[in-house]
Amino acid sequence: MNLTDVVLEEGKVIHRQEDIAITSFDFPFGSFPITKKHPLTLTIENKGKKVLGIQGSITLNVMIPCARCLDDVPTKLVLDFEKEVDMKQTEEERLEALDESDFLNGYNLDVDKLVYGEALTNWPSRVLCKEDCKGLCKVCGQNLNRGTCDCDSTDLDPRMAKIRDIFSNFKEV
Questions:
Q1: pLDDT (tens digit, 0 to 9) for every residue of the chain, 173 residues total?
Q2: Residue 30 to residues 1, 33, 51, 115: CA-CA distances in angstroms?
Q3: Which residue pairs, CB below 8 angstroms and at least 24 apart, start in 165-172?
C-alpha cells in the first residue's frame, strides 16, 4: 500500500480496508493455518512533520493446538493496534530506537508484515480445547479425552523415587 499521498500532505487522513495475502502464521515454534480472515481496517493520519499515526483492526480465525492434548482448536484472534511512525528516520535510526517497523519500506506499507508482527505480539500464551481437557497419557501418548489406556497412572513425586524402589524390592520377597 503506497503512503506517498498521506506522507506529503499534513493533516491528511485515509481510511482503507485491505485484504491480507498470508494463509498461515509461520513462527519458529510452529505453523498455524488461518481458516477465516476479514479485511484489515486501517486509518492512517499524517500528524505533521512526517509523523504518521496508524490504527488498524482485523479478526482472524487460526487453528492452534491445545496445550494439553494437542488437538487443533479454532481460535479467534482479534488484533487492534495503534502505532506512530516517524517517516523522517532512516532504517538505521529506527533500528537504534528499537522501532520495529519492518512493515514500512520507504513510503510503502506491507500489510502482511504489519498483521504478522501484531499477531506475534498478541499470540495467546495457552489455548485449551476445553477447560477440563485431560491431556495426553505421560507413558503412551493416548489422548485421554477420547479414551483411557492401561498404563500405570500412579503419579508420584520424583523425589520419592528411592522410597518407591524400596517398596518395590519388598514386594519381590
A1: 888 888 888 888 899 999 999 999 988 878 999 999 999 999 999 888 878 899 999 999 999 999 999 999 999 999 999 988 877 766 666 666 555 667 877 788 889 989 998 998 899 999 999 999 999 988 888 999 998 888 876 666 777 777 777 777 776 54
A2: 29, 10, 36, 17
A3: none
What does each C-alpha distance from 164 to 138, 140, 151, 153, 159 come to in angstroms? 18, 21, 17, 14, 10
pTM of the model: 0.75
| 78-73-126-113 Cα dihedral, nearest 10 degrees | -40
Residue with cell 483411557: 148
Number of Cβ within a 10 Å radius of residue 156: 9
